[in-house]
Amino acid sequence: MERREDTPVRLARRKYEAKVKEKRKQQSGTFGTMIPRTLFNEINAFLKETGYTKVQLVKAGYKALLEEKEKLNKTTE
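RESULT FIELD:
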């Protein structure tokens, strides 16, 4: 695959990306996981139907798991 010609706009974008790469890494992250395609499709259909974003799904799931953990800790005390 041949690289496209460098234009002033492309050079400016590359320079900007190189400058803010570390800052962007510190501000956000990715889990980089893989899930079975059927589950992936099911989750995407749910998100499309409800209008939630993937970030909202992750936050809600995390919150629910924290609450579940607290309940388990209270019952074992």
